[in-house]
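Illustration: DUF5672 domain-containing protein.
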Amino acid sequence: MAATNGPTGVFAITKARLLIFASLAITWWIAHLLPSYKPMIKAQFKSRLDEARQKIPKIKVDWHPTDDPRARYNASKLALIIEPRPIPHLVPQLLHMTSVVPPDWRFLFIGSNKSVVSVARSYGIKHQQVIGKLDLMVLPEPWSIDSKENVYRLLTDVRFYDEFLPGVEWILKFESDSILCSNSPTSLNEWLHWSWAGAPRTPDDRFSGNGGLSLRRVSSIKRVLQFQERYNDTEAEDEWYGKRLWVMQGEKVAHGKNGALAVEDVYMEKPMGYHVRDGGKGINDAVWKKPKQRKKIFDYCPELSLIMDMKLERERCDGDNKEGGIGPTDEEKEKLEEEAKKAAEEAAKAKEEEEARKKKEEEEKKQKQAEEDRKKEAEEAAKKKAAEEKATEHGSDAGPAASSDELDEILGGEDVRKTDDGLNKEGASSSDSDSESNDDADAKAKAMGAAAQAKAEAKKTSTHRL
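Result:
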């Protein structure tokens, strides 16, 4: 056996036993000191834990979603129609509007018992109700919508907006005679910066907010209702709001064609929609009278046929000018007037030209007559001169020449005879040749010379006798 250097057995001192003893001693010491340091340790631990919690990102999980389908839409945007009459086209009009208005808008139909029941029968309307897009409502008493005045009172009462339209900021107000066009290049959401936008009544209307088809901001409406109250049986609610919003600072209101949302009395190219007053019974001629413009409107917005009382082209009367009358159209009348005016101008011009031509002919005739007179005087002067020369020649041969007075007397007698002969021969041809005229002149000159010479001889003989 090997020899050992220390005691053996249970009480033998080993390294392991020393370590165990030391750890027990330290544990007892810490346990003795722990009560005095316990608050400090807790505070330190809590501070460290809080710091760690602050560094952890916050996450909120909603494990209880709502079952209301209306929550999927924007509660601040609402398309509103108020109609107590059970009109047949309400269902197709509503379904069309739900497809044209942006998808985040909700619809509210407020009607009477009859109109609500007539609309609610449609399967398409029921589907819109199920998906939360459309609500049908009959207002409780004392609210009433059986007349336009009651509707005006409803829309100018702040309690209506607080009780039935909570949380709504924008209202698209439309009626049974208004519609949005699916071909419109703009979206309704592009108009949300306006306080009020509608249809102008005149091209320079300072408030283009006709309420038949208009976009309204509820906060602007409530601003007005805070200090103003409409008197019953006065102007329509849209006109009442317009006079006040137009002068309020910070409100952007449509005026003229600037901000005009729809067409009613003033024609515009490619509007958002149309308001056809009373279903077409009160339409403006400036928009609807011309056939070409009317066709252009229907090509752009064929949905108008849903709300307008229309006839087929083959149902027109004979002679219908397509402008609401029988006979020529205004355009044709204008064309006829222009043609008549043009014909009158041409006739006046022709008359002036004829008068100028006649005047010119008269002047030419006078000039020709004057020329003929000058020629005649020249011929007579030449004849007289020739007669004098011949008389002088004969006088030198046969005796003393006749005096100038005697020659004038002879020539005067010849002229008288010539004048008488001309009057007796009136109507004779004026186209004798110049040679024949000269021969006659020479013969007459010779005769005159002979007569003058004979007269001179006779005078001489009488002188000698004396």
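Reading the tokens back as a structure: The beta strands are 77-83, 106-111, 134-137, 170-174, 178-180, 196-197, 213-217, 262-263, 273-275.
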